[in-house]
Design a protein that fits this description.
Blueprint (H helix, E strand, L loop, with lengths): L1 H18 L7 H22 L8 H26 L5 H15 L1 H24 L25 H6 L4 H12 L6 E6 L6 H9 L2 H6 L2 E6 L6 H15 L13 H12 L4 E6 L4 H7 L11 E6 L2 H6 L5 E5 L5 H12 L13 H11 L3 H11 L5 H15 L4 H14 L3 H8 L10 E2 H11 L10 H14 L4 E5 L5 E5 L2 H14 L3 E6 L2 E3 L8 E5 L16 E5 L6 H8 L7 E3 L20 E3 L20 E3 L20 E3 L2 E2 L10 E2 L15 E6 L4 H6 L8 E7 L4 H8 L7 E6 L20 E5 L17 E5 L9 H4 L6 E5 L6 E3 L10 E5 L6 E3 L9 E5 L19 E5 L3 H5 L9 H4 L4 E6 L4 E4 L1
Parallel strand pairs: 1-4, 1-5, 2-3, 3-4, 9-11, 11-12, 12-13, 13-14, 14-15, 15-16, 16-19, 19-20, 20-21, 21-22, 22-23, 23-24, 24-26, 25-27, 26-28, 28-29, 29-30
Antiparallel strand pairs: 6-8, 7-8, 9-10, 17-18, 30-31
Helix pairs in contact: 1-2, 1-3, 2-5, 3-5, 7-8, 10-11, 14-15, 14-16, 15-17, 16-18, 18-22, 20-21
């Protein structure tokens, strides 16, 4: 961590020296001395950062870290006062003199502070020779390009030692009496309770047996109303039913009544994961009726008494045990020796490995963490050192503390450039999943990413994230259907470790409202602050002058009238995230936040931004998703460092119009923003010049366009041809009668992965056939003719295909051998469709959705050959179609009997049927 902090300070110093600005006589020489001394210390720390817990070094590192922070603060202040160019030639000599007199005191104060810091850095540098550091423990910076994300803890643990408990618990769930039953899985942290129960919850047999499912993570700081709302949301969303109105304002009694009515005739399964207190069960049990339908409640808890106390009705307690030695050894080898054929332990590491597995005492989390750490070690000496440290750390400590100590070892082993990225999870709530792309943007805005020649910062950030996943420090919470990571989280024990380290490092501070009290102590200078359901009144008495990042979680507090006074104090702020805050305007001139790099008003009610936005010269990300902003000020073209513009909101009703997303209008000159990588969604109906300017945005990776006119199609194609890095392209015509004119695109982006076309097409553009990396294709309102989808069948990597009002043919025929990689097929509102033939095609299809295809009378011909098909979902389909699939008397039931999940939905009447 100290090394990362020094790196930021060095970057600032380099920028200042290059500008060659004079503070006071000789001050720049002092800055150069500080820079050289810090560079020497940084190189030294790169070799010793892994050993920061050694005697004596911890305090030394803390002093160095604080000085590095002070340098960054000082340089930021310097840039505020003197780093911006002044138009002396226009103002004249007199104005220049007035400017110097005005800032004379500031110059003198900063000059004195620099000299003081110089002396402190020199003293710290002298002290480093007092410590006997092991310079052989250099943390290697290993990067693996184009690798698959390593197996998560969940996936690792499920392969070893869970067959028997899984079999027993599933039997308790699907067999036995029809009255409600509670099953508690009890065990200490790290044994894999959540892993086991998640595997059971996702099992096809369990999914098919229950017709309503909900998974709730309770945690220690639960709110009953939030848990009830979550259960209701999951039940209604699963059945694609509309939520009851005003649910967000209802009290507990009303929420319980809604749940009881909903569940009165359903066989449901509810998982209450991580239950800490019996009062949580007491608050929830009345919402889960004993309806004599065979419903089950599955609980995980670390506390045996809680597990037993929940068994008011007949049930079971399963006490999860540590892995036996053979299973523990198997799990260890799978993780530690994954690069070795057969994952066999080398003979020279056999004894050391057995010792390490023995110390882990059968705890899956400990085994996976240590094995992942060791998989990056080379040589017997490094393995022996790790084994000896384990013995020293784990001797005579409680098991839960053992896990924390093991995780701490894993943290200390992180390369210096990963520690600050890992600690960023301390900002988010424990149970929070964080979007992958959000993490990447935040890390870049903070300056955590060290890009190398030829690599973008985004690519390096992805490698950082993959490395943390590979080490089992971070878990993947959700994947996109086409395989990419969507969101991440950390295990609750790891989150505890992160919070602990964050306090030690003075990395971040969290103010959390629990019950009626605010948790979180304010110690020293605050540099990153997150508020969780706390109002701005608490912040008025806190020194925020050193704040770098500010996050708001929850909707309580922050009245508009007092925000101006608060944010006027945040001169050094880099990150401002007000997502979901109850605000409809921002009463602060953006020029008062000159260092801002990341600005998010996502899901607020803001509808307009001040022209002072153009003074945010360092802004990289502008997130307006879910707001009502329809036009960005002309001054946005001044933001030459802008990399991401997200400005749109989706229509959320049951029957979306032609425009499912409204975008924003941008001024002429948008082509000057040459660093842009994401632009969604741009409205192009106002000026053809905007379309032509897009050709200057050669760094774009994602582009979304709405309201494209037919005459602008050729110009857009010309611009798209220059975007060789484009990965995702979405375009919507100006109306459902306006053709998308995209045929003239001769050389499409070679790396395009996702393509979304909304609007009529005369035919599918021929260039689509060259998209060998395309994984997702969505066509809406295309009105394609019979047998016009042939070019899609040969796409080698297409995983997901969605057709909505996109095909006017009577018959959809897929040729034998076509769609080799397709996993998801979604057919919606194909009004003329009579037959679908998939005989010999789509061998890897896993999910099929058929929605409102009113002329379709029978399931696709050849569906019985789709042996990998796991789910068939039918929405608002004709009764004759559904009848043919029913178990009793259905003519086509035998064709689909191999599909574990078949469900029919009637959106209009909110009915639902298991088939």
């Amino acid at each position: 961590m100290a090394t990362a902090t020094l790196q930021f300070a060095l970057q600032k110093l380099d920028s200042l020296i290059i500008q060659e600005q004079q503070l006071l006589g000789g001050v720049n020489t002092g800055i150069k001395d500080i820079r050289d001394e810090l560079e020497s210390l940084k190189m030294f720390l790169r070799e010793t950062d892994v050993s920061e817990d050694k005697d004596g070094i911890k305090g030394w590192m803390q002093q160095l870290r604080e000085i590095a922070y002070d340098i960054e603060d000082l340089l930021e202040e310097y840039m505020i006062h003197f780093g911006q160019p002044h138009k002396y030639r226009l103002l004249g000599f007199l104005s220049k003199g007035i400017h110097h007199l005005k800032h004379l005191r500031t110059r003198h104060r900063i000059g004195v502070a620099i000299q003081d810091i110089k002396a402190q850095v020199h003293n710290i540098s002298e002290r480093r020779n007092m410590y006997n550091f092991n310079l052989n423990s250099i943390a290697s910076r290993e990067r693996l390009h184009d690798r698959h994300v390593a197996a998560l803890f969940i996936e690792e643990a499920e392969l070893v030692g869970i067959d028997k408990p899984k079999e027993d618990i599933i039997r308790w769930l699907v067999k036995g009496e029809s009255n409600q039953k509670v099953i508690s899985v009890v065990g200490m942290g790290g044994l894999g309770k959540t892993t086991l129960v998640r595997k059971i919850y996702d099992d096809e047999k369990v999914k098919g047996w229950f017709n309503s499912h909900a998974w709730i993570t309770v945690t220690q700081s639960f709110e009953v109303s939030e848990l009830l709302k979550s259960i209701i949301n999951q039940f209604y969303e699963e059945r694609h039913e509309v939520l009851p109105g005003r649910i967000e304002t209802m009290g507990d009694i009303q929420l319980i009544d809604i749940l009881r009515q909903f569940l009165q005739d359903k066989r449901y399964l509810v998982v209450l994961d991580d239950l800490w207190h019996i009062n949580a069960w007491d608050d929830l049990k009345y919402a889960l009726p004993n309806n004599d339908c065979g419903s089950r409640i599955l609980i995980t808890t670390r506390i045996g008494d809680v597990g037993i106390s929940c068994l008011e009705t007949p049930g079971h307690v399963y006490k999860l045990q540590p892995l036996p030695p053979t299973k523990a050894w198997s799990l260890f080898c799978k993780k530690a020796f994954r690069s070795i054929p057969g994952r066999v332990c080398p003979s020279e590491l056999q004894e050391i490995s057995e010792d390490i597995v023995r110390v882990c005492e059968g705890l899956p989390l400990a085994i996976v963490t240590i094995a992942g750490l060791l998989s990056k070690k080379e040589g017997v000496l490094e393995w022996r050192t790790m084994r000896d440290n384990l013995h020293a750390e784990l001797a005579n400590n409680p098991k839960l503390e053992t896990i924390k100590r093991i995780l701490l070892l894993s943290y200390n082993d992180l390369p210096y450039f990963l520690k600050s990225c890992f600690l960023y999870f301390s900002i988010f709530p424990k149970e929070c999943s964080v979007k992958r792309i959000t993490l990447i943007r935040l890390w870049i805005a903070e300056g955590f990413i060290e890009s190398e020649k030829g690599e973008t910062m985004e690519r390096v950030a992805v490698e950082y994230l993959n490395d943390l996943i590979d080490r089992s420090m971070i878990q993947v919470a959700e994947h996109y259907d086409y395989g990419r990571v969507r969101s991440c989280r950390v295990h609750d024990l790891i989150h505890d470790l992160i919070v602990l380290k964050s306090k030690e490092e003075n990395f971040s501070t969290a103010l959390i409202r629990q019950n009626r009290e605010i948790q979180g102590r304010i110690l020293g200078r605050i540099r990153r602050l997150s508020t969780h359901d706390t109002g701005e009144h608490l912040l008025q008495t806190i020194d925020l002058s050193h704040l770098r990042a500010f996050f708001v979680f929850g909707e309580n507090g922050f009245s508009i009238s007092s925000m101006g006074n608060l944010f006027n104090r945040l001169k050094l702020l880099k990150i401002l995230d007000l997502e979901g805050a109850p605000i409809d305007s921002f009463p602060v001139e953006f020029g008062k936040l000159p260092h801002l790099r990341y600005l998010s008003f996502r899901n607020t009610r803001i509808n307009k931004l001040s022209k002072s936005l153009g003074r945010l010269n360092n802004l990289e990300t502008l997130d307006l998703k879910g707001t009502y902003v329809t036009e960005l000020p002309k001054t946005i073209i001044n933001l030459q460092r802008l990399r991401h513009i997200l400005a749109y909101h989706y229509y959320t009703g049951n029957h979306p119009p032609f425009y499912h997303a409204d975008g924003v209008k941008l001024p002429q000159g948008i082509g000057r923003l040459r660093e842009l990588q994401k632009l969604t969604y741009l409205e192009t109906d106002q000026d053809s010049g905007i379309v032509r300017e897009l050709g200057n945005l050669t760094q774009l990776k994602r582009l979304g366009i709405v309201k494209l006119r037919r005459e602008d199609g050729p110009g857009l194609c010309t611009s798209i041809e220059k975007m060789e890095l484009l990965r995702s392209f979405s375009v919507t015509s100006i109306g459902m009668d306006e053709f998308l004119n995209l045929q003239s695109l001769k050389s499409p982006p070679p790396l395009l992965q996702r393509l979304y076309l909304r609007g009529p097409l005369e035919t599918l553009p021929n260039w689509i056939s060259s998209l060998k990396y395309l994984v997702r294709m969505r066509l809406r309102w295309s009105r394609l003719k019979e047998n016009s989808l042939g070019i899609l069948e040969a796409l080698p990597n297409l995983i997901e295909l969605t057709l909505i009002h996109a095909y006017d043919g009577l018959k959809l025929l897929c040729q034998k051998g076509g769609f080799q990689k397709l996993k998801i097929l979604d057919l919606e509102r194909l009004n003329n469709l009579n037959y679908v033939i998939v005989d010999g095609a789509m061998p890897n299809l896993q999910k099929m959705y058929i929605r409102s295809c009113m002329q379709l009378k029978m399931v696709p011909t050849g569906i019985e050959q789709l042996i990998n098909l796991k789910e068939l979902h039918l929405f608002d389909m004709p009764d004759v179609f559904v009848q043919r699939l029913r178990r009793l008397g259905g003519m086509d039931h035998q064709k689909v009997s191999h599909i574990p999940i078949i469900r029919s939905y009637d959106n209009e009447n909110r009915m639902y049927e298991e088939i």
